[in-house]
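Response to reviewer comment R2.3. The reviewers asked that we include at least one raw input/output pair. We reproduce the pair for Zinc-binding dehydrogenase here without editing.
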Amino acid sequence: MKAIIINEFGTSDVLTFIDCPKPTISEGEVLIRTTHTSVNFADIKNRTGNKAKANFPMVLGLDVAGVIEEVFNDSSGFQKGDQVIAFPKNGAYAEFVVAKEQLVFKIPSGVPIEKVAAVPTVLFLSYMLTHQIAAIGQQDAVLIHAASGGVGTMLVQMAKRLGAKQIIGTVSNLEKAPIVYQLGADHVLTYDQFSTNVNELTKGQGVDIVYDSIAGAITEESLTCLAPYGTLVQFGNSGGRAGNIKTADLHNSCRNIKGFSLGTTRALKPELLQQVAQDIFSLVNEDSFQVPIAKIFALEEMKKAHEFMESRQHQGKILIKI
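Raw output as returned:
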């Protein structure tokens, strides 16, 4: 089969297109013939060694859409030919992948695989963030960082659907603003003095919820525009630096900070994903729910796909068609 591997950490040049044996499955696993995978920022961090442990050769990638090729025995909840999305156990950049059944989700009839293929990671994540980790109410003003990216475009739509009182998005440059407005944001800002602008837009009250995947100085500044009793959800560090938080910034104002990782949830509590899967598919099946695709690459073009992700010029998901 064809696959992309890395034999060392480094730049996009370490991504190598190879032929390798098809993987085998064990009890409780299925073999999936991949039709699509996607590029997530975690892939960049894993490739550069900022997240993954060295275990070479390594296949990167978090999610796939495809077709069940093989089940282990007749007791499986799947059968050959089922269309699914999944979180593979050993990477996703390959023609065939192995996944544990509890991390495989059968695509209902009528749901377009091309649409759902772009969203396994970002839609599960954004749904759980907005419905469970920091549930959005109709009186809430919400700030969404990296609003034009894969997760951000989902979060904006979630906030709109849940009736948030005010939706503010941040982007690296205002050329990315149109897509954020189109998906439902009331205001789009750059990161330059964003907290001052947020406080002005909220008439000095601040926002009730901040969704932050950047960390570092963005997290620190976000606290200066978070309302009393507000919640900051920290679910990534694409900025590359941890933010420093003072305990006095929390207890004096009754604010709180929550952390969330979809990767940790997949590993420790996969049943939580099963509980929301049908809601995910229902959303994707709605014509009004948009899945912005920044660009589609072939598997052998993975180097270009990673470079596009790192350029931070993309709006929406980067999809790989296999």
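The longest helix spans residues 120-133. The chain is about 30% helix and 25% strand. Further pairs are available on request from the corresponding author.
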